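Troubleshooting: if your tokenizer reports a length mismatch, compare against these two reference records.
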Amino acid sequence: MKNFKIPSVLKNKYVIAVLVFLVWLTFFDQNSFLVQYSYQQDLNKLEKEHEYYKTQIDYNKAQLTQLETDTALLEKYAREKYYMKKKNEDIFVLVAASDSTQESFTE
């Protein structure tokens, strides 16, 4: 077996200290790089959700303003969403049959 020589760079105590410090920060520390990366991903996800909900709030505010100002639109919304009706009026709600109910009838 040949004599294995350690490079002089690895004999330097400062290089060893920096390497140990980097390994410690990468894997063992409470605020390791891996944990920070995970936190950054969570933050990005939450920022996307924040933008989504912000646009939904703006959309709902616009809808509410329209419903408050337009009585015909309010009546249409009430009829479609809550099945409200006028006096002497019949409403028929048609529901599509799902696949599971169709199978039970055919068996």
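Reference record two:
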Amino acid sequence: MKRAAFSFLSLSLGISVLGAHRSTPIAASKPLPARPLERAAGSLARALAAVMPRATTTLSTDAGDVDRAALRKKVRREATGTYISDILLERDSSVARWPDRHGVPLTVWIQPRSSVPDFEPGFVTQVREAFEQWDALHLPVRFSFVDDSAHAEVHVRWIDHFDEPISGRTRWSRDDDWLITDGNIILAVHHYQGELLDEDAMRAMALHEIGHLIGLDHTTDTLSIMAPRVRVRSLSDADRATARLIYSLPAGPLN
């Protein structure tokens, strides 16, 4: 079975302001609309019109064949308050997500100690709290922490800094059905110019990276944790609503 790998980068813009971008110049340089949520309906319509044919087709999943036209109607109906249109435009109308785990959580190992200068055990606590914020949504994918890295499906590790202006990187792979099969997060203790990330910034960076881990992409909504330039420290209503919508859809292309 063919697997595709994806990598997400988080850009450091200073001690109190974080940002993120994928490793594409278009995503990094795209201007941010001033009122993105008010434009969500128009963006969704353009996304659906551009990449989703109107013909009724079916999508094969573990649960059987799904009417794709019905899925498109569902997305239109439930898009308000989300940034699903940004994700569909970025992913060519496809949804990537972890499979339903049926109550079995993803096991997560967070590196408990590091020889990196200025590393604080409190960073581990902040990353755990970030996972718990996402876990509180009760998505079909949940998290539990393990002490043995060999028994973990997701690994979070520390480095001193990246050699480019980023502070975090998430990598995951998917199978042919667009189901995510594995993922890992790397977080830097220092910005690339040497400044130390404080604990609030570390938690925000972890929230952003975990969003990528579960299948979210960037949004033009500047008040959300998944914005390319992160200026918030907790999940927004749009972050929650978008994740819930993604996990109510089957993985794969909707066209």
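Descriptive notes for reference record two:
- The chain has seven helices and eleven strands.
- Helices lie at 25-29, 40-51, 68-78, 84-90, 121-135, 199-213, 237-246.
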